[in-house]
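STRUCTURE REQUEST FORM
Protein name: ArsR family transcriptional regulator
Source organism: Halosegnis rubeus
Requested output: structure tokens
Priority: standard
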Amino acid sequence: MSDSDGETVADLPPSAKLVYKVLEYDGPMTQKGIVEESMLSARTVRYALERLEAIDVVSEDVYFADARQNLYQLTDADDQSAETVAAADD
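Status: completed
Returned output:
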């Protein structure tokens, strides 16, 4: 997804915005946790995470409690994106 230059969270589909907000409110989570919290399908959450990673607002780390899973969290550069989402929601 190299064509994401200049894309912000506000430009993403509603499902990606929801995943962003879940991570913003609940902190780092596994994909399974995001699925349970957002009530989106696993496939939709996977796609949303791919889109969020493509614009560098979400990072992926190893989940040490279960190395088969990944831990997703917002990156430090997400302050501007959060403001953009808030403005888009108004």
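Reviewer notes: Residues 9-78 form a domain with the Arc Repressor Mutant, subunit A fold (CATH 1.10.10.10). The first strand starts at residue 29 and ends at 30.
Form closed.
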